[in-house]
Amino acid sequence: MLNFEFLLLCEFMHSVLNDINYASKTLQKCDINLGEASKVLAETKAKLQIYRNDFELFKCKARETARKYGIDTHFQEKRQRKVKKHFDELAAVYRFPNQEKIFKIEIFNNVLDTVISQLDTRFIGMSAVCHIFDFLTPTFLLHVDEATLLQKCNEFQRKYSDIIGPSFSLQFINIYHLVLPQLTQAWTVHQLCKEIMSKYGVLECDVTEVFTAMLLFFTIPVTSAAAERSFSKLKIIKNYLRNNMGQTRLRHISQIAIENKTASSLDLNEVIDTFAKTKARKKIVNIIVI
Residue 193: CB partners within 8 Å, gap ≥ 6? Predict the structure, then answer.
């Protein structure tokens, strides 16, 4: 088990899984938006593509670890199986010259190619949505001409025509000219929207479609992590010891558990007083009716 191939595999898989884990944890944040998620995925993909050309670097790291534990730093050569070649075969199956080449092609490159392709395939929908919201990214706004921006706004309006009115394009062009002087490359979508809402909030009545588009961008769910957490809470709350719990009580307890941050910030004394007053009012009403 403890051979050089195993150490090399552990070395590069540790780096790959670290990057994937970081992206996974970031995507599971409650306050993440599409822009941040897209950026994290792009950075992760770029790192993995760099790893594909760093086989020698991983091999050096594995050799250092192997020397530390007294393990041979060479690949164990295996006897190649002889395959009979028939007379009608035009070419024989290509054989790699050594075990290192086999490991690099069949394991190292194969694993990285699979991970990169899975990142592209699984988040193709997110990439499409981010492409639609390109007009909100500061880097795009700094290098785009007005005609292209107008075209992007029109595409967005047609995509979400049920909630975005036809005046969106002109409204956004007006906001674009107001924000452009202070716009920088370092800004994020969140900073841009915050700048628009704080400085030009008084114009909300005139640019309602722009504000609706920004709210839409920040409310589109990035992943299903929030929904999965809710189901996990339900499973914890309604266990086999609470099997007879009614739907109303389950809903109320689940809401408290899911919205834990908000619930923990409540003043319990105030809640108890409100509850007591409500009950007392009911008693008074009952007495009057009787």
Answer: 136, 214, 217, 218
Other beta carbons within 10 Å of 59: 20
Q: Phi first, then psi: give them for residue 69, nearest 5 degrees.
A: -105, 10
DSSP code at position 1 = -
Count CA atoms closer than 13 A to 238's CA, side-chain side. 17
Type of residue numbered 253:
I
The set of long-range contacts for 284-287, using a CB threshold of 8 Å and a minimum separation of 24, is none
- Structure-block tokens of residue 23: 């992206």
**What does the chain come to in residues?**
290
- Confirm whether pTM is higher than 0.85: no
Angle made by CA atoms 122, 128, 130, in degrees to the nearest 5: 105
Distance CA 255, CA 253 (A): 5
pLDDT digits (tens, 9 = 90+) for 88-143: 666 656 667 788 888 888 889 999 999 999 988 888 888 888 888 888 888 888 88
